[in-house]
């Protein structure tokens, strides 16, 4: 009874809930360990491997029971001892598929296992990319939220000065509304960032199983070599899955061609008769006769070979699609990186310089408070824009590296 009472506690401690901050690598590790999609595909691989054990084995033998030559008319009708030919029979039958068919069955099972493993690798790859994207989105949402809070605090210090300017008559009442408009616009943007933060947390929770995920640590530097990414396409999980599909289609074609060879069967039976006549034993062999291949085996072979051609064409289409996606992604990354550099190296210094100059002019009495507010608002927008551009560059770089990079990159 005590053991039964403690079982729920043991069950509750067997799989502790995950919660807390995660570095980038920790997020990927948790996703690979806890994502249900990966677990489901691993189970399919295990099922395929278990099924492969039976491939190529002989079918189960058949036990047969019956009566042979039982009279149904005349004086010995429905008697077991009234005729020399009547016997109570028990026998075994064994079907023996031809060797080519058994080898094809083994090849088909091996191909099915390879296909399951390839699809599992694709799923692992998809989970990794989705987790990385969610973590990056969350990390940059946190950074943007901190930046906009700092901006709002900085602009908040200008509110008393704006009111004082109106009270002193140096600014018109309508002009004092400018800072309130700027703050309202930034608060709207803060609401958007908070929603993006929640969305990224929800996505990261889905993949890692972490109840309250937080992005911890620095964002990795996703450096890559475009030439290396192009060479790594041949080892891409999706292309390996296409190769496994070709292997499965080849095994099906092999099985279809093996159908043109005859299968065999053997049988052994014992017949119990009236003691006056003695018992009998029967031994036999049989074979299938694929005499009508034009309407039976040949159509199946043609269908299997068509499927094989389709699998090869699908593989080439997958390769071309990956190559096109890579080139498009590289062009997008180059564009985003150039935009980020311009914003970071040109637009942001200019915005800071403008804000400093307007503040200095205001202190010297050559500019109004509205000019300072406009410059500070522009600086805030530029700072947030630089972060947005950096996030897009990092996200695109991570996507390219994780999607097209080889395992050693």
Concise account of the structure shown:
With 409 residues, this protein is α+β, with helices and mostly antiparallel strands. Helices cover 67% and strands 11% of the residues. The strands form 2 sheets. It has a 4-stranded antiparallel β-sheet, with no helix packed on it. Strands 1-4 form a two-stranded parallel ribbon.
Structure keywords:
409 residues, alpha+beta, four-stranded antiparallel sheet, two-stranded parallel sheet, 10 helices, 6 strands, 11% strand, elongated, disordered N terminus
List the SSEs and their pairings.
Layout: H1 2-14, E1 18-22, H2 24-34, H3 36-52, E2 62-68, E3 87-96, H4 99-156, H5 158-168, H6 177-208, E4 210-215, H7 226-231, H8 237-258, E5 264-272, E6 280-287, H9 297-363, H10 369-404
Parallel strand pairs: 1-4
Antiparallel strand pairs: 2-3, 3-5, 5-6
Helix pairs in contact: 2-4, 3-4, 4-6, 4-8, 4-10, 6-10, 8-9, 9-10
Explain this structure:
By secondary structure, the chain is α+β, with helices and mostly antiparallel strands. It is 67% helix and 11% strand. The chain has helices at residues 2-14, 24-34, 36-52, 99-156, 158-168, 177-208, 226-231, 237-258, 297-363, 369-404; strands at 18-22, 62-68, 87-96, 210-215, 264-272, 280-287. A hairpin with a 7-residue loop joins strand 5 and strand 6 (280-287). The longest helix has 67 residues, at 297-363. The model is unreliable at 1-17 (pLDDT under 50).
């Amino acid at each position: 009874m005590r053991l039964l009472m403690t079982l729920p506690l043991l069950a509750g401690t067997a799989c502790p809930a995950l919660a807390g901050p995660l570095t980038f690598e920790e997020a990927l590790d948790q996703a690979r360990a806890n994502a249900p999609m990966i677990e489901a595909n691993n189970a399919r691989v295990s099922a395929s491997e278990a099924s492969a054990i039976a491939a190529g084995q002989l079918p189960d033998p058949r036990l047969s029971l019956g009566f042979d030559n039982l009279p149904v008319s005349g004086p010995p009708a429905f008697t077991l001892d009234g005729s020399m030919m009547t016997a109570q029979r028990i026998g075994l039958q064994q079907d023996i598929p031809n060797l080519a068919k058994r080898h094809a069955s083994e090849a088909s099972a091996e191909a099915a296992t390879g296909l399951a493993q390839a699809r599992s690798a694709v799923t692992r790859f998809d989970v990794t990319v989705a987790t990385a994207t969610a973590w990056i989105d969350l990390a940059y949402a946190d950074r943007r939220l901190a930046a906009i809070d700092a901006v709002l605090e900085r602009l908040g210090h200008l509110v008393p000065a704006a009111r004082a300017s109106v009270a002193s008559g140096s600014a018109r009442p309508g002009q004092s509304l400018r800072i309130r408009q700027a703050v309202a616009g930034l608060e709207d943007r803060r609401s958007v960032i908070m929603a993006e933060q929640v969305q990224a947390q929800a996505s990261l929770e889905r993949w890692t199983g972490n109840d309250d995920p937080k992005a911890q640590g620095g964002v990795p530097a996703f450096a890559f070599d475009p030439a290396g990414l192009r060479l790594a396409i041949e080892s891409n999980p999706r292309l390996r899955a296409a190769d496994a599909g070709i292997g499965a289609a080849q095994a099906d074609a092999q099985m279809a061609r093996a159908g043109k060879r005859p299968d065999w069967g053997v049988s052994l039976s014992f017949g119990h008769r009236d003691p006056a006549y003695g018992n009998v034993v029967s031994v036999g062999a049989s074979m299938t006769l694929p005499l009508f291949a034009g309407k039976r085996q040949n159509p199946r072979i043609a269908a299997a070979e068509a499927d094989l051609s389709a699998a090869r064409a699908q593989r080439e289409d997958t390769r071309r699609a990956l190559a096109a996606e890579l080139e498009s992604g590289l062009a997008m990354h180059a564009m985003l990186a150039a935009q980020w550099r311009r914003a970071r190296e040109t637009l942001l210094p200019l915005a800071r310089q403008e804000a400093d100059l307007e503040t200095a002019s205001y202190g010297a009495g050559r500019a109004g408070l509205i000019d300072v507010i406009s410059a500070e608002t522009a600086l805030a927008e530029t700072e947030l824009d630089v972060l947005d551009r950096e996030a897009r560059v990092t996200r695109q770089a991570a996507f390219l590296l994780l999607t097209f990079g080889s395992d050693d990159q």
